[in-house]
Amino acid sequence: MASRSSTAPRPAGSRALRLWALGAAAWTLLYVVSKVVHAVEGRLGVTGGPRVDPDSYASYGPGDVAAAQWANAGVGTAVVLLFVLCALPVVRSLPRWLPAVPVGLVTLMAVAGTVGMVGRALLTASGGAGFGIYCAVWAVLAAGVLVCLLRRS
Questions:
Q1: Quick one: CA dihedral 59, 63, 66, 72, positive or negative?
Q2: What is the pLDDT, as a whole number, of residue 12?
């Protein structure tokens, strides 16, 4: 069987997966940046998220808020790396379920964020609609990656 040369066109599904995955990685990077800024400033919350009650800080010790935000940034970075992996040709050599399971979990998390943040913003005066809309875009991008992974041959 002849190997594919580097100049041979990629299947259309591979290109779509790469575009969805890079879009999702870039979008997720916005979350990471938000968490890094919050960590450096020692603030709870997320950009566009609901207002944080000042009493929320009482349950944290010195440096714990920053540590929690750095941990969130780390999780976000892992998600960025997951999407970057999905954009690489190596993903074609993996069983399709292997990347699809974590991408599916990210998709569900983003959908939950959408429902939770938008619902909270509509039902309370705490805000959070901005992050809810961010989560909606994130869910669409992650779902696009998931669909491409599941459709690949």
A1: negative
A2: 62
- Single out the residue of 72, 75, 95, 84 nearest to residue 145, CA to CA: 84
Quickly state the pLDDT bin for 118 (edges 50, 70, 90). very high
Three-state DSSP at 133 gives: helix
**In this structure, are residues 70 and 145 in contact, taking their beta carbons and an 8 Å threshold?**
no
Q: What's the token pair of residue 76?
A: 């976000």
- Residue 23 to residue 137: CA distance in whole angstroms: 10
DSSP 8-state class, residue 105: H
Q: Is 139 exposed, middle or buried (0-12, 13-18, 19+ CB in 10 A)?
A: buried
- Name the residue with tokens 């450096």: 40
User: Do residues 138 and 32 make contact, with C-beta atoms less than 8 angstroms apart?
Assistant: no
- Cα–Cα distance measured from residue 14 to residue 4, given in angstroms and rounded to the nearest whole number: 14
pLDDT of residue 84: 98
Rounded to two decimals, the pTM is 0.87
